[in-house]
Amino acid sequence: MVSLEIEKKAPEVVVDKKQQTRLSVFLPAFLVVGGGAILGIVNNQLLTDISMKGFIGSLRGLGWLYQIISIVALVIVFLVTFSKIGNIRLGGTEAKPKYPFLAWFAMALTGGIATGVITYGVNEPIIYFGNIYGEMANTGVEPGTSMAAIYAMGRSFYNWSFIPYAMYSLSGLIVAYMYFNRKAPLSVTGTLIPLFGIKITKGVWPGIIDTLAVLAIALGLASSLGAGLALVGSGVETFYGIQQGPMVWFVLVVVITGLFTISALKGLDKGIRRMSDINAKVFYILLLALIIIGPTLYILESSTAGMAHWLQNFWGWGLDPGIVGGEALVMWWTLYDWAIWIAYAPLMGIFLAIISYGRTIRQFMLINWILPAVFSIVWFGVFGGTALHWQQNNSVDLVSTINESGAVAGLWAFLANLPLAIIIIPIVMIALILSFATAADSMVRAIAMLCTVNIHYDEEPAKWKMLIWAVSIAIIAFVMVAFAGGVQGVDGVKYLAALGGSAVLFVFVLQVCSAVKMFFIDKVEK
Fold first, then answer.
1. pLDDT at res. 302
2. pTM given for the model
3. Which CATH fold topology does 29-395+429-521 show?
4. Are the C-beta atoms of residues 443 and 276 closer than 8 Å to each other?
């Protein structure tokens, strides 16, 4: 068993006025991110080809591993939550939590949700229902039927609920337990001590492992921001007649980057906490509004049937590397999603850990695993259910809209048909901007912390580090959208981000193995 000296009292905050930069992480990560931006400007097609081929190759070769490790992560999280291990308090028995329940949940939820649920809450179920990209070809379900609607709901629930949040939660739990209870370094590398001993934190390995985590999240954020610019820009063009282009994208990137940069620079309590609270309230308002004005009975019935179909097919979907459901469904949706979630997991884990001091492991899992998964199910049930109801009743033909103009147009066509659309559409745009800004400020802070030597969880990283990463991510996203091939540029960074997830996959596998050893083989230390 690998053990570290345990201190029962809460760790004292020791602020190093002269923070040292971890050059072994900062320099290689910054050079790769900057190099990707330069390559996108010089030869965007080459960037797209390299990243797409690498991404597709990794999913075709490692799809089986993605599926197995995701199920294993889910099982571990379940066992930890509902066993006596869940009673362990992060920081020791005397540790007291810093944040109230609702504030903690808002930070955990919005810090990892980005723009995903808004973008795909309508689009994904409709794409399945209409077999737009061939997703239903191998399922035996006829597109456009009532069964296709049930399938669409069930598959969306599967992709967006308990499995992906188990990935976040497991990474976060290992970071929190190792740092607060075992006094390991606050890093991704520190989570691997149960497997390899304290020697893993010495030599070249910390630089390699933590650099991979930083690269994956930095490229993932650039991808999300690029897609967000295109999404909001298309909405501005559709509803306000302002043609999107470099100037619109520049204004948007300045606004969004300014929001998450200012929030990150203000610190955890004055910045991220406040923005998370606002963002969460906007989500709650949107859900409540659509529940009231939407087809409530259909939402409840289709969600219930969708959950039944999801549970009935859970193991078949969960262990299919693509040879049963086909690449259009499995690789381009489920496995791509797993790659992105895993790319985010190690750094998201650090953020989830630092806001969870004083909570029990069971409380940690409630906030970071169970409630976000339930929120996603409700969101897809309400938005996806409404969209499917309208499609089947011919109220609006979202399938044709997506076929003709792409998935982004599907969201705006849906919103345009809502009662009070003139009010709801600006709120959705604000929610998109806030969603990305909230996720980005938490991740920029985590990146800056990982690039700092021996930083304490309560200590704010140097502002210049947060600023340089925020600006770098914004520049990549803007260059890709405005000057490096438009949608193609966004795809290039998107594939590169998913490819980063493939590299981090092996780190995540080691984290899962570390959790098994730490909680079920070694003696669990309180």
1. 97
2. 0.90
3. Amino acid/polyamine transporter I (1.20.1740)
4. no
